[in-house]
TrEMBL record:
Signal peptide: none
Keyword Kinase: yes
Protein name: FGGY-family carbohydrate kinase
MF-aspect GO terms: kinase activity
Residue ranges annotated for the Carbohydrate kinase FGGY C-terminal domain, each copy included: 278-476
Species of origin: Dorea phocaeensis
Highest taxon above the source species: Bacteria
Protein keywords: Kinase, Transferase
Family listed: Belongs to the FGGY kinase family.
Domain Carbohydrate kinase FGGY N-terminal span(s) in chain numbering: 17-243
InterPro entries to which the protein is assigned, alphabetical: ATPase_NBD, FGGY_C, FGGY_Carb_Kinase, FGGY_N
Gene Ontology biological process terms, A to Z: carbohydrate metabolic process
Length: 534
């Protein structure tokens, strides 16, 4: 049999597994075979909108995008294998973490979906961090809920359920109000001993709002927490119609716990074991480091979340990474086109990125900030992309590109230094994935220098979150008795492949340290621009 015929047999027998992920700009469905290889996919582009000062997506945006990406995936199946998709072995949904979706008893959305991008919860986040002695970032669901209470919002008394985007989709398709522990850990702190919401903090929150006399307690309105490998419901007949408008998909498919995009990134890079981590670098950048023990202090720059199987993770999340860098590459494209040169963008990115490696290790005294939005880690409220140099700086193309690539890692480096230098967190290896690593060896070399740790890049890292979600669904379906998620991924999916590793170069490390001191000193310039440049 040809491999196509084998895949066709897998699809027809209902053994293929589906992962779907709602990213900030794209919804993607990935179907995998029994060897965990992607065999079909479909995607749908979407954009959040600013509605009355709130970054949101409408329910119509959500369902239109979900159905379109699913439909395109089934068309891909039909085009490649000549078969109609009617049966699926297991399904998993993932999405951007955090945010706020609040529903009443009838299941009506009470206020427009407030995404993770909204930084309107400062007073709530600060008060809860103080109350819990645990970092509560502004984008966490509990910060959104408490801010709504502080604002005296009318809808709060009518809340019956709050969840994340992935939790909402899962609920609509299965009737189950559940959430994977990784996604849940971005709603409310998780107790590592119980694998559930921290009971002492839940009690503190209920006492904090007792005088409001709401007809609910916190645990009554939060999703039930599930761990990777557990079953989390089955696709109902109504859910099947919601997902597949053609009516071809059969109900009864088992679903794994819905997860956040951070958890699927960990699965897709085989970074769920302790002392491992991954850095996802695209429009934003974040590092997920699986910790051996809790941190000694509360750090506002570090989010404490979990892996999909419930291990403690220190997360460093920066809002800005490659957007400004991409804009500069666009300027070079315009320059070339002005001379009548037809530009291949992959070649342009590759050429400019590699040019950076010819630059001085400290970027020649140049400084830039790719801040399109504010940056919590460095305390910048409003972003102003900026390039600065002194008359004595060594201003050439190589240093210009190196400065712009280095600054894409700047805020992440500040946060990682807290973990590595203040908390002495041990990391054996970091897995890099995302757009910054597409040009071989460049982003990888600079990240290794920034965090003074070996960085690996896998060929499969480009498969991303929806593939990672499909792996979590496959784990639920195929795991052996007592087989951990780490063992399942390491032995059955990645087969011991650790990717191409690059160790930090001592001179690069020294140069990046010089650059980051300049970067931190210049933050006041960036803040001033936010005040004076409107």
């Amino acid at each position: 049999m040809s491999s196509n015929e084998q895949i066709k047999a897998v699809i027809e027998s209902g053994k293929a597994v589906l992962g779907l992920e709602f990213g900030s700009t794209r919804i993607k469905a990935v179907l995998i075979d029994e060897d965990h290889n992607p065999i079909a996919s479909g995607d749908h582009e979407w954009e959040n909108r600013l509605d009355n000062g709130i970054w949101t997506y409408t329910l119509d945006d959500i369902w239109t995008g979900l159905r379109d990406s699913y439909r395109k995936m089934t068309e891909d199946v039909n085009a490649k294998y000549g078969v109609k998709l009617t049966k699926i072995g297991a399904i998993g949904f993932s999405a951007m973490m955090h945010g706020y979706m609040a529903f009443d008893k009838e299941g009506n959305l009470l206020v427009p979906f407030r995404t993770w991008r909204n930084n309107t919860t400062g007073p709530a986040a600060e008060a809860l961090t103080e109350l819990f002695q645990y970092n509560i970032p502004e984008r966490w669901s509990i910060a959104h809920l408490y801010q709504a209470i502080l604002n005296g919002e009318e809808h709060v008394k009518d809340i019956d359920y709050i969840t994340t985007l992935a939790g909402y989709i899962h609920w609509q398709l299965t009737g189950e109000k559940v959430l994977g522990v990784g996604d849940a850990s971005g709603m409310f702190p998780i107790d590592m001993e119980t694998g559930n919401y921290d009971a002492a903090m839940v009690q503190k929150f209920d006492e904090l709002i007792a005088d409001k006399k709401f007809p609910w307690t916190l645990t009554e309105i939060l999703p039930v927490v599930k761990t990777a490998g557990e079953e989390a419901g089955t696709l109902t007949a109504e859910g099947a119609k919601l997902l597949d408008e053609s009516g071809a998909l059969e109900a009864g498919v088992p679903l794994c716990p819905p997860e956040g995009d951070a958890g699927t990134g960990m699965a897709a890079t085989n970074s769920v074991a302790r002392r491992t981590g991954n850095v996802s670098a695209g429009t934003s950048i974040f590092a997920m480091i699986v910790l051996e023990h809790a941190l000694q202090k509360v750090h506002k720059e570090i989010d404490m979340v979990t892996t999909p199987d419930g291990s403690l993770v220190g997360m460093v999340h920066a809002n800005n990474c490659t957007s400004d860098l991409n804009a500069w590459v666009g300027i070079f494209r315009e320059f070339a086109e002005s001379f009548g040169i037809d530009v291949d963008m992959n070649k342009l990115f590759g050429t400019l990125y590699n040019k950076a490696l010819e630059g001085d290790v400290d970027c020649g005294g140049l400084l830039s900030y790719g801040y399109l939005s504010g940056e919590n880690i460095t305390g910048v409220e409003e972003g102003r992309p900026m390039f600065v140099r002194t008359p004595k700086s060594n201003f050439n193309l190589a240093n210009f590109m190196r400065a712009n690539l280095s600054t894409a890692l700047g805020a992440l480096k500040v946060g990682m230094d807290i973990l590595l230098k203040e908390e002495n967190v041990a990391i054996d290896t970091i897995m890099g994935h995302g757009g910054l690593f597409k040009t071989k060896g460049v982003g990888q070399k600079l990240l290794a220098a920034a965090i003074d740790t070996p960085v690996s890049v896998m060929k499969t890292a480009g498969e991303g979150g929806p593939w990672g979600m499909a792996l979590l669904a496959s784990y639920m379906l195929h795991k052996a008795e007592g087989e951990s998620l780490g063992d399942f991924l390491g032995n059955r999916v990645f087969h011991g492949d650790t990717g191409e590793s690059m160790s930090p170069d001592a001179e690069d490390v020294k140069g990046f340290e010089t650059f980051i001191e300049r970067y931190k000193a210049g933050i006041e310039i960036e803040k001033a621009a936010g005040v004076h440049l409107n």
